[in-house]
Design brief:
Blueprint: H1 2-16, H2 27-34, E1 42-43, H3 46-54, E2 62-73, E3 77-80, H4 87-104, E4 109-110, E5 115-121, H5 126-133, H6 139-143, E6 152-159, E7 162-169, H7 172-187, E8 194-204, E9 210-214, H8 220-228, E10 233-242, E11 248-253, H9 259-268, E12 272-277, H10 288-292, H11 320-335, E13 341-345, H12 362-383, E14 388-393, H13 401-405, E15 413-418, H14 438-444, E16 449-454, H15 471-483, E17 488-492, H16 501-511, H17 518-528, H18 534-554, H19 560-571, H20 593-613, H21 616-640, H22 644-659, H23 661-670, H24 676-697
The structure holds zinc ion.
Residues 298-299, 316, 318, 353, 355, 357-358 line the site of zinc ion (ZN).
């Protein structure tokens, strides 16, 4: 394909005479013909070209911007679609016209204008077919790109006093993405209704076919934002309820907004909303359903029911009734009319059923579980024959995955959860490739395979108490998913619009893992946010990512509160409740105190640079991260030091440093647009952490038994 691209590039150079092609004999003639000699153009310098590139999100796979641009009033633009367009195609074009009207306050005309956009699916459009025949773009090359249904081509042509833009796609999804990119091309240099279009050509397609998030969009506006980022799936946790006469029904999604409205909102935005079962045996959310089906609950080692307790939360798959109940659950989902997709996570209970039939055999437990799921799925397909399912393998199934696969037909997708839980079966370590080798094996067995990437508890639970910038992490994970030929790239950030850099990084690198460096991505992101000096912003955020991710890893005890509980217990000479879960500084991932001193200094650089930038958000972020790093540094010193006096001093330092956290955290929260539930979560998280630090004050230093 690379060779072919070079050939096409030569044709492209000939046709469009990209700046720098000084060896081309025909340059002058071609410029006259194609570069706007008969249409007024303006030079595009390097800085402006950079602005245009940074307005593109995600970065297209193949992009050539010439050294010319055109200026057109928004009111003089038109879109010409084909009479043969399909209903979905028409809907995409109408949506684009609506957006145009909303943004520029003038309609996008039909047919011809000073700028005419010819947009559509090639096979339905004689205009695009003719353009392809004339060599304006290469329809065959476009049709051969990966994930072709999502691929598109944009070509500008300035000729005979007319300016044309061809947005050509193989299918509807590609048309949707092509129009989004065209709009982004205008965003870079336009001022209000005075549009500036760079002369360019783009051929683009996504690296990963299905890109989306778990519990991502909570509102329709967020759904639209996801669509604008070219994400195409949104998984929604769903719950079941049971009536008093044991009839199971679909309750709704995790935001209490069930039924078809979510599904339809997704449809409107070209996003598949996928009902997602969070662990098969968790479906009766808090165990209330189990009161109606006591016979299903697994038995503990001494025969006690363990459903809903800390030691386990699972079904007994040895009980013949279990299948019946699961069939009912799947039937209820199929009847809820939520589209043709379903994702089912297998169990993750620390204890399996110990009844006489199950005997606590984990392998047997998970094989039985998958058999039950497949049976229920086949029965649900009687209700909805189009229903497709993806199985999500968990940390608990990991040792048995190959055995489980034997019971999964090839038309069912397989998704691996890459979290950072206690079992450490799949890691989310910073800075290295970590995806389990099982992924490639599962691909080679013929499954559509994917990974759920966990963004760590800092973006999941009640610990929104420090910033999480994860662009490098995202680039690494998405590169890995692409390199291993996986079909689904999914992220778990809850909610993904809290600290939006992460969802934008996810959208960027799941579409094009190799297009930008993470620093270039951050610079582009900050330009889109109208921040000053994007390259310096990138420097600050890149500096902060390493300490931030290490802090997030430190929360593998689930929450920062637990990590701080452990820290305070050790500082107080008590036995910690949580751990010893991770040896290195309770999982804060720094191997020694010296490294922390270095990290602390890097945070100083971030603070200084943020102040130069006068960015309130970055100042607040870097001061807060620095404070946490300073605390962890003193903690590491305390653990390493043998000198009782120095240990006492370090402990005093932690008391002092932690007392500033509430103010620093508040300053940072004030720069964030948290929704109400996330705001409450951040307050709750901070209060809980501070309560732990309070225990340091209440414990007189003299009473410590310092070794
Ligand atoms: Zn059992």
């Amino acid at each position: 394909m690379k060779e072919k691209f070079i050939c096409k590039s030569i044709i492209f150079l000939l046709l469009f005479s990209v700046g720098g092609c000084s060896t081309c004999n025909n340059k002058a003639r071609l410029e006259k013909e194609y570069m706007g000699a008969s249409y007024p153009s303006k030079p595009l310098n390097a800085a402006k070209t950079m602005r245009v590139k940074r307005s593109l999100h995600p970065m297209p796979q193949e992009l050539r911007i010439s050294d010319r641009s055109y200026e057109i009033p928004a009111g003089e633009c038109a879109l010409k679609s084909s009479p043969g367009a399909s209903p979905k195609e028409k809907q995409i074009i109408d949506a684009f016209k609506e957006k145009w009207q909303a943004e520029y306050n003038v309609p996008l005309k039909d047919n011809d204008g000073r700028l005419t956009i010819i947009a559509g699916v090639v096979k339905n459009s004689p205009f695009l077919q003719k353009a392809a025949d004339n060599g304006v773009f290469d329809a065959k090359y476009l049709s051969e790109q990966p994930n072709r249904e999502q691929a598109y081509n944009i070509t500008t042509v300035a000729n005979n006093g007319k300016l044309m833009v061809y947005v050509a796609a193989n299918d509807n999804a590609g048309l949707h993405y092509g129009l989004l990119t065209f709009k982004q091309l205008l965003n870079g240099l336009s001022k209000n209704q005075e549009l500036t279009l760079p002369h360019c050509r783009i051929v683009d397609w996504p690296d990963i076919p299905e890109r989306g998030v778990m519990r991502g969009a909570r509102t329709d506006v967020q759904m639209q934002r996801m669509a604008e980022m070219k994400l195409n799936v949104n998984h929604d946790w769903i719950w079941m309820s049971v009536s008093s006469n044991r009839v199971i029904s679909y309750t709704g999604n995790s935001y209490g907004r069930g039924n078809r409205d979510r599904f339809l909102a997704g449809e409107r935005n070209n996003i598949k909303t996928i009902p997602h079962v969070v662990h098969m045996d968790y479906l009766f959310s808090d165990g209330r359903g189990m009161e109606k089906f006591p016979e299903l609950a697994a038995a503990g080692k001494t025969g006690e029911r363990i459903y809903g307790s800390e030691s386990g939360r699972t079904f007994c798959y040895g009980n013949p009734k279990t299948q019946e109940v699961m069939d009912q659950m799947f039937a209820a989902i199929a009847k809820a009319d939520l589209g043709d997709r379903l994702a089912v996570e297998m169990g993750e209970s620390p204890t399996c059923c110990h009844c006489d039939a199950c005997k606590g055999d984990a392998r047997k437990h998970y094989i039985n579980e998958i058999k039950h799921i497949m049976h229920a799925y086949q029965k649900a397909r009687v209700i909805n024959p189009a229903l497709k399912m993806d199985i999500v393998l968990t940390q608990a199934t990991q040792p048995h995955n190959y055995a489980i696969l034997d019971f999964i037909p090839k038309d069912v997708g397989v998704i691996i959860y890459a979290g950072n839980g206690p079992n450490e079966t799949y890691k989310t370590t910073f800075g290295e490739y970590v995806l389990t080798p099982q992924a490639e094996e599962i691909v080679s067995r013929g499954y559509k395979t994917g990974v759920w990437v966990s963004y760590g508890p800092a973006l999941l639970w009640n610990d929104i108490i420090f910033p999480t910038y994860m662009s490098q992490f995202t680039k690494l994970r998405m590169s890995e998913i692409k390199d291993r030929g996986l079909y689904y790239g999914l992220g778990w950030m809850d909610s993904c619009f809290n600290q939006e850099l992460n969802i934008e990084a996810f959208a960027e690198f799941s579409w094009n893992a190799g297009g930008r460096t993470d620093a270039e991505f951050i610079a582009a992101w900050s330009q889109r946010k109208n921040m000053a000096e994007p390259d310096k912003v990138a420097q600050v955020i890149k500096t902060l990512e390493y300490p931030i991710w290490a802090m997030a890893s430190g929360m593998r005890t689930r929450t920062m509160t637990r990590s701080v509980e452990r820290m305070v217990s050790l500082l107080n000479g008590e036995n910690p409740k949580w751990g010893p879960y991770f040896e290195i500084l309770n999982g804060f991932e720094y191997h020694n105190n010296e490294e922390l001193i270095r990290v602390n200094k890097k945070c100083d650089e971030a603070v200084t640079l943020s102040k130069e930038l006068k960015s309130n958000e970055l100042i607040a972020s870097s001061l807060l991260v620095k404070q946490w790093v300073a605390i962890i540094e003193r903690y590491a010193f305390f653990l390493e030091s043998k000198d009782p006096e120095k240990k006492k001093a370090a402990r005093e330092d932690i008391i002092k440093l932690s007392s500033h956290l509430p103010k620093l955290c508040k300053n940072w929260i004030d720069t964030q647009q948290l929704d109400e539930s996330n705001y409450k979560a951040s307050q709750g998280g901070l209060n809980a952490v501070m309560k732990e630090f309070e225990r340091l004050k209440n414990n007189p230093i003299e009473s410590l038994h310092l070794k």
